[in-house]
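To the team - zinc ion complex, inputs and output below.
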Amino acid sequence: MVESKASWLRESCPPWCVAAHHEEDFPDDREHQGLVREIPAVLLSRTYPESGRLVETTEATTLDVVRHCRAGSREEWVYIGDDEHRLDVSLETARRIASALAETVASGS
Ligand SMILES: [Zn+2]
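Output:
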């Protein structure tokens, strides 16, 4: 936990927060954030150009995974994304996804 002197922060940081909160933080940026976990990733993109034939392309990227919560809120979210892709899911959804991914990878089906 990082100590903060920002007057807009009315609650204590959750134990997983590593954000440095500053008085001048813009209102949209006022949130608690956990460690950024960077995952090297390959993404598959499927498009149907005007020709109508399926085109598949792969793209190497780094996906960030970050737990976050708006200041003053108790709703915790997990961000998964990069500069072009963004998915924010509730903490409970993230747990279900993690479980499903573990099962899917382990079983091969
Ligand atoms: Zn915080």
